[in-house]
Write a structure and sequence with these properties.
Elements (H helix, E strand, L loop, with lengths): L1 H19 L14 H7 L1 H4 L4 E5 L8 E2 L2 E2 L2 E2 L3 E2 L5 E7 L9 E2 L1 E6 L5 E4 L3 E2 L7 E6 L19 H5 L5 E7 L9 H16 L8 E5 L9 E2 L8 E2 L15 E2 L3 H14 L5 E7 L2 E4 L2 E5 L6 E2 L1 H5 L1
Parallel strand pairs: 12-13, 12-17, 13-16
Antiparallel strand pairs: 1-6, 1-11, 2-5, 3-4, 6-8, 7-10, 8-9, 14-15, 18-19, 19-20
Length: 304
C-alpha cells in the first residue's frame, strides 16, 4: 500500500512538472502574457517617451491597424502573425488626440518576445481599446542636458591671456539613429568648460556637430536608436543664445573649419581639438565617423 501511494505521488509530481515547463511559453504554466507583464517587458522602451498606451486586450494574429503617412491614407497595416499586446509611444502631445504615434512595440502573447516598428502610424481607435500608462505635462518635454555652469573667476589665473587659444569640437554622429543625445551632451559639456572655466572666447570655438544648423531631426534621445528624435540645439552652454561657429560634421564641413583656422591662427597660438561619438579602425589607421556615415575622417589628413 505504501508503495502504491508513493508511485501515485511521483506520477503527480511528474505530471505537474511537465505542465509547468511548456516549451516556448513566457509563463511556465503556458498561460498568455498578462497586461501587467506586457507593460513590464516593454518598460525600458516606453519609459523613454513622454506618452505611452497599451492595448487593453490581446490582439489576435494579423489584426488590421490603420496606417497613415503625413495624414494620407496608405496601405493597410497589420499586427504580426501571432497574438500580441501592442504598445504605442510618442514624444509629442499633438499626436495624442489623433492617436498617431512614432513607435509601436508588439509583445508576443505566448513567448514575451518583442517586435519594434519604428514607422509612424495611426491606430484604429474604434476596434482597439487602449489604456494610458504614461503622460507627462507639456512643460516637461524631454531635452538634452546642459552641464552645470562653472565660475570663470580663475580662468585668467590658469591660462592668462586667452586670445591665442582656439578650440574645435567634432561629433559626426553617423545617422539620426546612431547620433545619441549623449554625444551632443559631451560637446555641450566641453564647450561650457572651455568658456566658463578656462576663459576661451566664444568666437574662438568651432563646433562641427552632426548636421550643423539644419532644423531637421538629427539626434536620438533614447540612446538605443528608437527615438524620439529631435534637431540638435544650437545653444551649447545654456545661455539661451545660439553659438557663433557651427558647421556640419561632414567632410566638407570639417575641412572648412580647419581651412578657416589655418588663415587666422598664429604660429604661437594653441588649438585644442575635442572629438566624440563613433570611430572605426581600418588596417592600421583609426578614423572618426562623420555625419550620415558617408565619410570616414583621419585627423592628420585635414591638419597637414
Amino acid at each position: 500500500m505504501k508503495r502504491f501511494f508513493l508511485l501515485l505521488a511521483v506520477l503527480f509530481l511528474f505530471g505537474c512538472r511537465k505542465e509547468e515547463n511548456k516549451s516556448g511559453y513566457y509563463n511556465r504554466d503556458g498561460s498568455p502574457v498578462t497586461w501587467e507583464q506586457a507593460r513590464d517587458i516593454t518598460e525600458h522602451l516606453w519609459s523613454m517617451f513622454d506618452y505611452a498606451f497599451i492595448s487593453m486586450d490581446i490582439l489576435p494574429s494579423s489584426t488590421r491597424i490603420i496606417q497613415r503617412y503625413a495624414d494620407q491614407v496608405s496601405d493597410p497595416y497589420y499586427s504580426p502573425a501571432y497574438d500580441s499586446w501592442v504598445v504605442v509611444m510618442s514624444p509629442d502631445p499633438r499626436y495624442i488626440n489623433g492617436f498617431r504615434f512614432y513607435r509601436y512595440v508588439f509583445v508576443n502573447a505566448k513567448t514575451g518576445e518583442i517586435f519594434i516598428d519604428s514607422i509612424e502610424r495611426e491606430v484604429d481607435k474604434e476596434s482597439i481599446r487602449w489604456r494610458e500608462i504614461k503622460s507627462l505635462p507639456q512643460n516637461e518635454a524631454r531635452q538634452p542636458k546642459y552641464p552645470a555652469k562653472t565660475k570663470s573667476t580663475t580662468a585668467t589665473e590658469i591660462l592668462g591671456d586667452t586670445s591665442n587659444k582656439w578650440a574645435v569640437i567634432i561629433s559626426g554622429g553617423g545617422t539620426v539613429i546612431d547620433n545619441h543625445s549623449r554625444y551632443w551632451n559631451d560637446c555641450s559639456a566641453m564647450y561650457s568648460v572651455l568658456v566658463n572655466k578656462y576663459g576661451y572666447q566664444k568666437s574662438h570655438i568651432y563646433l562641427s556637430v552632426s548636421d550643423g544648423t539644419s532644423p531637421a531631426e538629427d539626434m536620438d534621445l533614447s540612446g538605443v536608436g528608437i527615438g524620439p528624435f529631435q534637431s540638435s540645439p544650437l545653444d551649447y552652454d545654456g545661455d539661451g543664445l545660439a553659438e557663433q561657429n557651427i558647421y556640419p560634421a561632414t567632410l566638407t564641413g570639417v575641412q572648412s573649419v580647419f581651412t578657416t583656422l589655418g588663415q587666422i591662427v598664429g604660429v604661437n597660438d594653441d588649438v585644442f581639438i575635442f572629438v566624440t561619438d563613433h570611430g572605426d579602425r581600418i588596417g592600421n589607421t583609426s578614423y572618426i565617423i562623420l555625419w550620415n556615415s558617408v565619410y570616414f575622417l583621419r585627423l592628420n589628413s585635414i591638419m597637414s
